[in-house]
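We store sequence with structure; for instance:
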Amino acid sequence: MKKLRNKVFWVIFLLLTSFTLIIFVTYTTRTYVERKNSISDILTKLPRTFDRKSERKDIDFSPSKKTPDDPRRIYMNFTVYTVILDDDGNYGGVINNTNQDEIDEEYVKDIADSVINNHKDNFYIGNLYTNKYSYIFTEDNTLVIVDNTELNSALLDQLVFNLLLFIVCELVIAVITYFITQWIITPVKKSFEKQKIFIADASHELKTPLAVMIASSDAYFNDKNEKWVKNMRNESERMIKLVTELLDLAKTEQEQDIVMSQNNLSNIIEGSILTFESLFYDNNIKLKYNIEQDISLLCNPDLITQLMGILIDNAIKHCSSKGKVLVNLNKKNKQIVLEVKNTGLPIKKEDEEKIFERFYKVDSSRNRNSNNYGLGLAIAKNIVIKHNGEISAHSSNGYTTFKVIWNQK
């Protein structure tokens, strides 16, 4: 169970982590690409701020004025330097500074000289997390430089923030995954525990008659008394009954579909009741039944007969002396309702659901000779579920009632 829980936890955790990671990577990449595209647009579409003349002496180093409706005009949050180059490609002077501050020509000259002396490409943006400058050499012998310093800092801050947020999300995911795992594992854990209890109970029930049979056989060899043979026969019959019920339970719990057809449920119920008439007479129990005729149900007749046998046998065993057993079958609106009632000790409220569990016995002090293993009602519940019905039990007004409901379309 521990291995299963860990496996489920890690599968869910990794799935949620992958989804979260994709979101963070997508967002970070998209932001980075947008910033890079902005710089690319600045470098390639920035309007030239001077009119270049044919002679060097005619260069105008003052910013020219562009009309507001110039389609090439770009509004930026970047510091951009436009540098004029001489005929040899060396620094000639600064002709534009978008931050509107006073230009420190020595500072700009150092940057321009570094770019001119070390550049390999005429157009370069580079890594926006580490590169301080992006630039382009234009055809009109100018160098446009974008200062990435503030952008470097902003992108790194955002990256750190995203990483911290991702870590927080991972912690939240771990907590959520833990509770989801517990929710998924709970039914499996309950089923596993029930299976362990089932095996333990079955082993106990089988061990008891085997122990009696071995002891009886030893006693028989000692004094040859036939009562020991009778004991072995009785225990053998008990084992056969137990094994038969275990097989029936296993069959009804199988996932495979059962063969069903449209049958007259009224005839099946009535026929099942009549087979127990002698047993009612022997136990001095009054039987009364009210069966509405020609009720049809899509069912397996053998399993319905088995269901009735379990419910009637249960009613007889728990009926009070000189008591009554009532069987009703009727159809109300779109519901088929089957009720098997008996007088006798009531079922406690807390036991109404537990009695359908395997090996559960309301009266634990009941003696072994009753041949009751607590499997009959578990088999009955499985049969009802196989037929898409519901079964319940309750006690009121001196009667214990087992009710089966089939909803019809």
In short: DSSP finds eight helices and twelve strands in the chain. Confidence is low (pLDDT under 50) at residues 49-75, 364-369. Residues 258-407 form a domain with the Heat Shock Protein 90 fold (CATH 3.30.565.10). The CA atoms of residues 51 and 269 lie 106 Å apart.
